[in-house]
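Async update (no meeting this week)

Hi team, since we skipped the sync, here's where things stand on the single-chain job. The sequence we agreed to prioritize is pasted below, unchanged from the tracker. I ran it this morning and attached the output directly underneath so nobody has to dig for it. Comments welcome in thread, and please keep replies under the output.
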Amino acid sequence: MKHLINALQGGLKEYIPLRKARMETFCVLVLGVLSARTVNLSHLASGFCSRAETSSNYRRLQRFFQKVRLDYDGLARFIIHF
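Output:
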């Protein structure tokens, strides 16, 4: 899973300006939604490939949505490009 996260980060970094930790969270979120086929944060948090507890991962996702404003135009350019 880590190689998928790195690949997605590499492709997104020129389209979406996020700090490294935020970009990693976004990539884990995207890959989690695609693999789990759900947007339920509790379910996604349990699927993180980290040593952190599920509750910590859940809180990480909550903070991401509270604090991050995505550049949807940049995201659209990335999707169109690939």
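Quick observations from my side:
Helices lie at 2-12, 20-36, 41-46, 54-67, 72-81.
Residues 20-36 form the longest helix (17 residues).
Reply here if anything looks off.
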